[in-house]
Amino acid sequence: MKVSPAEQHERLGSTQERARELAQKGAPEGTLVVAREQTGGKGRLGRAWASPTGGLYLSLVLRPDEGMLKRASISLVAALAASEALDATARVSTSLKWPNDIVLHGKKLGGVLADLVREGKDSYLILGVGLNVNTARDAFPAEVRTLATSLAIEKSATFSTDEVLEHFVSHFEGHYDRMTTLGSRVRVKVAGRTIEGKASGLNATGALVVELDDKKREILYAGDVEELRSL
Ligand code: BTN
Q1: Range scoring the smallest mean pLDDT among 17-26, 121-130, 180-189
Q2: Which residues pair with 24 in a beta bridge?
């Protein structure tokens, strides 16, 4: 998968809405919409996502096939790529908080929103990422001020949002392409046993869920995986 930047906005209602419009009109996988400020940013669980200037707000059109369509794992991969991008840009050590918050020093630095849309035969996933890069403390709404932070607040310096974006794109492309295991028939050697079945997804801790031929499920935290064939 190759990310292709389609639109860059100084100010937009929501990149999530805009990417969805483009996907509805047939935009291909990898179409990227970026904004420097959002006036109607959307968060998870129907919440608003404060999106003042200084942040990086992006949405990506993805068209995973049914085997890849594991929203939890794609969101997790996006959160991981975002965490790596922030770390590389600002030499920090961010962590992930379930389900897919990016956290630094106990405060939220970013979040990921995955909207799965099914329209007739067409289905796509709009993956949104909001990162507080240079956001000033008083630019956050009062109710999130004690919970949220930005790289600028934590490091007393400003950073290039373009650099964060470049790192995010390259990490995400790499991780997404490596997720081919999901949906495949696999043979896993683990603790002296060999398990065969369909790699049906990852659970929230990142463990591999294998569906056996008798429909029982095995949750695997380690093991050597051999892909047998795509299902
Ligand atoms: C969360 O609630 O933690 C997820 C927030 C995701 C926000 C991003 S910012 C870019 C994209 N556009 C939106 O309106 N929301 C997502």
Answers
A1: 180-189
A2: none
